Every structure is written in structure tokens, then in C-alpha cells.
Amino acid sequence: MVENNSLMTLAVKEAWKYQGLTYPNPAVGALISDDFGSILSRKAHTKAGAPHAEVEVIKDAYYKFTQDKKIEKLKNSSEIHDYLIKNHNGLFKNYTLYVTLEPCNHYGKTPPCSHLIKELKFKKVVIGKRDTNPKAVGGADYLREHGIKVEVLKECKECEELITPFLKWQKGNFVFFKLAMSLNGVIDGGIITNETSRELVHRFRDRCDLLVIGGNTVRIDRPTLDARLCSGKAPDILIYSRKEDFDKDIPLFRVKNREVFISDNFEILKRYKNIMIEGGRGMLEATKEMVDMYAVFHSPNFKVGQNPKLKLDLKYLFCNNQTKDRLCWLIN
User: Which of 35, 195, 231, 293 is the most exposed place for a label (fewest CB within 10 A)?
Assistant: First the structure.
């Protein structure tokens, strides 16, 4: 017998690879398996506007079944839906779809995933968590009404933790702290991580509304704090400082369509939804009561410097070993 929770865990891990990149959508993972637990495909939602996790995993599975190269060329979600509905030929009738969040049941930027799943006549759908978004809810009931067996896991803590950012910015805002750390625990003194990690940080910035940085970092490093490595948009900036003695000619202040605030408090955060903080020991101390998650890039290299000494009781949620640096998400 297949253990649903273990397969759901794999779908959750796939989704964590794109945490921080899907705003304003939740991070969602999906997996397709047979009755014996053999995995046909595992995919995730990668960014807002892109196909949902269910569409990505079905598209990939369809290609593995058919080697139909036409499906690979399709990027638009509506086109993928239409092509799969016309050409599936009952391929999925003996397969189970696992998805970390209830399939959407409305037309938004993409067609409803529940309708696609119904048309492809999956044997069963296992859902990690019900969707609380009133616009998207109802996918499980829709599928049951059309004869598809649906199981919603009674408790999937991993699925709940996965969408913590989504739940936070729906009700207020989500604040995460990006930190780079050497193998021996040093977090300051110039570049620590590799180019791939720095590009991912720029992709985070592209999805953020606001980036918070310390005044000393601005004075010493004279940064730009944009998203040029991914050709993305630059977020607004809050410089946390008691003094306003900054050189306004540095690149940070010259980015178009950006607001830069200088303040000795964090009141401005109330105006934003998805907020990233970058900094060192001082910023870690100043923001420890407001941070929801920490995204820590662990470099495999040693670096000369001091280790931060902070009393933070953190729990590991996910660690990604895809690059030489190791990205770990932690929660208070």
C-alpha cells in the first residue's frame, strides 16, 4: 500500500525549491504516481503567471508517456490545458495526483486546475491542505461531484508550513531575512556566496515589495540593491538608520521607479506585503521580533571574521542542495 504522507512530502520538497519566487501565489508542489508508489513526475509552481504545479506535472508526465514534442513547446497555461484535454487518450485513468494545496476552481490568469484534472479522469487526487482563498476554493468538491476519488489529508504540517508566506501576506505581510554564512559561521566582510546564489537573491528581490537594509551597509558597500542578475524589477528600499548622512549619488538612490525611505523605525513595513531584509549582526538583532522566516545561504568555504551571537530559537523547514551553496529556510 502506498503511504500518502511520504509521497506528499516529496511534493512539498519540490515546492520549497521555489519558495520566495511565487509571490503573490503560494508555493505548491505536485506529484503523479501509480498504485505501487512509482513516481511518474514531480513538479512545482515556479512563478506567478506560470502554469500551476498540477499543470506542470501533468505536462511532464504526458511527455514521458508519449514523447510528443509539441507539448514541450507550449508555455501558456491555457494552451497546455487545451492540448492535454484533446490528446490525453485516457493515459491518467490509473494514476493518482498528489498536490500540496487544493486545486484551484476558478478562472484567473490561468484556467482552473480542477477542470483539467476532471477531464483527464485521474483515478484519485490526494490533497495536502484545503485552500483558504475564497476565490480559488472548491476544487476538491468539484472533483468529487464529477466522480473522481478525493482524499484530503487530515493533518499535513509540512503543507501548512510550505504556504506560511502566502497565509501571512493574505492577512498582512510576510517578512523574511536573507543571510549569507560561510562554513565557519562568518556573515560579514564582503562576498560569501557563489554567483548562482547571488542570482537567486536577485530573483527574491524581483518578487519583493520592499527591501530593508542597514545604514552602515549602505555607507560602506555603496550598493545598488536591484535585481539586475535576473533582469527583474528593483524593490523599494528602507534604510534603517538613525542618521541620514548618505551619499545620494550612489546607485541605490538612482534606480528608476523606486522609493527609498530612511528611518529609525519599521513603521513603513505596514504598507508592504512581501518584505525581505538583508544585513549582518546589527540587523539580525534589530529585526528578530518581526521576522517570519530566515533564508540562509550556507557557503562551503571558510572566511575570516566573527560569528554572530544571537539567541534565536529556529527550526529548519527545508534545505536545498542544488548548488555548491546550501539554501536553508528556517522559522521562529
Answer: 231
- In three-state secondary structure terms, 75 is coil
Q: How many residues does the chain have?
A: 332
What sections of the chain are H helices per DSSP? 4-16, 53-66, 69-73, 77-87, 113-120, 139-145, 157-162, 164-171, 195-207, 215-221, 281-287
Distance separating the N- and C-terminal Cα atoms of the chain: 36
pLDDT in tens, 245-293: 999 999 999 999 999 999 999 999 999 999 999 998 889 999 999 999 9
- CA distances in angstroms from 325 to 23, 194, 226, 277, 296, listed in the order given: 23, 7, 21, 19, 10
> What domains lie within the chain, and their CATH numbers?
4-166 (3.40.140.10), 172-331 (3.40.430.10)
Please write the tens of the pLDDT for every residue from 9-65.
999 999 999 999 999 999 999 999 998 889 999 999 999 989 999 999 999 999 999
- The residues that are catalytic are 54
- Name the residue type at position 286: A
Q: CB count, 10 Å around CB of 232?
A: 16
Nearest to 103 by CA among 137, 77, 152: 137
Residue 305 phi/psi, 5-degree rounding, is 160, -175
How does 199-208 read in b/e, with b if 16+ C-beta sit within 10 Å? bbbbbbbbbb
Report the candidate in 194, 185, 243 with the shortest Cα–Cα distance to residue 214.
243
